[in-house]
Specification:
Blueprint (H helix, E strand, L loop, with lengths): L3 E4 L2 E4 L4 E7 L9 E6 L6 E6 L6 E3 L7 E6 L4 E6 L8 E8 L11 E4 L3 E6 L1
Parallel strand pairs: 2-11
Antiparallel strand pairs: 1-3, 3-8, 4-5, 4-9, 5-6, 7-8, 9-10, 9-11
Length: 124
């Protein structure tokens, strides 16, 4: 069973930065793509970023491209999301997820395992 545990969320002013971490259990971390999603109150869960199993191919939704960076450390079984120039509209619960494939996807149904989510709040 794979467990994903997010950390690093919190409250930050607009223009600030946060770095989310997602620690994964198990020995298969390096074999699958990973992704970050977010869900704001009253909204559907949306794709934020993904990285392939080898961390070579990364994908970002347009609204965060150039501000957020996804990365992974295979030695630590950890996924990261560096978030810079944060905006109030980035406020949401952020989830990390492990894909069923080696290449990332923007579709939630291609991710088999999910973390519990962590709150990120950006004040104006």
């Amino acid at each position: 069973q794979v467990q994903l545990i997010e950390s690093g969320g919190g409250l930050v002013q607009a223009g600030g930065s946060l770095k989310l971490s997602c620690a994964a259990s198990g020995r298969t971390f390096g074999s699958y793509a990973m992704g970050w999603f977010r869900q704001a109150p009253g909204m559907e869960r949306e794709f934020v970023a993904s990285t392939s199993a080898t961390d070579v191919i990364r994908d970002y939704t347009d609204s965060v491209s150039g501000r957020f960076t996804i990365s992974r450390d295979h030695a630590k079984n950890t996924l990261y999301l560096q978030m810079n120039s944060l905006k109030p509209e980035d406020t949401a619960v952020y989830y990390c997820a492990r894909s069923t494939r080696t290449l990332g996807s923007r579709e939630p149904n291609e991710y088999a395992y999910w973390g519990q989510g962590i709150q990120v709040t950006v004040s104006s």
